[in-house]
Amino acid sequence: xxxxxxxxxxxxxxxxxxxxxxxxxxxxPQQYIVTDLGTLGGTVSFANGINERGQVIGWSxxxxxxxxxxxxxxxxxxxxxxxxxxxxxxxxxxNDGGQVVGISQLPHIDQFHAFVWDGSKLTDIGTLGGxxxxxxxxxxxxxxxxxxxxxxxxxxxxxxxxxxxxEGFSPSGDFATATAINDCNQIVGYFFWRExxxxxxxxxQGDTHCVLPSIGGRATFxxxxxxRGKIVGVGDTMAKDTEHAFIxxxxxxxxxDLGTLGGxxxxxxSINDAGQVVGFSTLYGYKVAHGFxxxxxxxxxxxTRLRDADGYEVESAYGINDVGQIAATGFVGGDDVYxxxxxxxxxxxxxxxxxxxxxxxxxxxxFVALAENFRKRRRG
Length: 380
Description:
The protein is mainly β.
């Protein structure tokens, strides 16, 4: 009898687990906790990206707003990224090892060079022979991409920097810039196609490249790339003075218009390996922009997903990692404070109240049966 009751209780427990697994759970929209990353002493900071460790990079005004410097923020602590000596510098990219790339003014001269900083050592990686260059991204192999003027500043080419050597490349001779690179060494960017008089996006790998299709207009700008070769950016549509964010699937060759939050402009800046896209978009009837995330093909205003917003207004989102953390920028407590932010996704239980009750009831039944069995054994 006791064995029968014992088996029955555990059967109920097993059935409850099966029901719990099989029953669709109610989908709660992802919410985010906001961390204000502050500044380097000035009134403004701006986030440009984030790595898998949650480190955010960007630029900030310093004390008295007398200089612009790059930063890297871990937790809620913002650290200065060293410059090459000039008054203006910014951090544009960071890999998972914490190596930071960007652009910095040289001392006492109106020229800018690309740099890489590993937390202690700063390296000027030079140019392609011209006066100016800037680093845009770095992958986990330490390969850096960006753009540089060529000799005599005749043109601007995309570059790839590895093991101390900078190599330029361009689908066309006049202008090209590289904006992102993944760990497969796939590189994306955009260039001016002289014959067609269009700005086109490219995907470059090894010695070959392909040109991305447009979303109807004569210009596309590829700005982000994930580890699976999906590309995001912004492009002209067929409508006049209207530019939309896009996503391009390299496997299928399909490009999709992601729309806007109601206005006539949107820009996709980053995509993680799960396919989540972030960027910013103007709102209907307003010139202001809000940061967005694209989920299941739908563009969502990040300001509708903030927990305890407390005066925050997210204006842009420039990076998202595979954990779902977002590098964003927005107003804090009013129009006078504009800071870099990190949005951390809340991790909640996926169990519905009804499912939880059923599981507890089943587990209680199993426990009662075990307890009774134990008491009977003691009496015996």
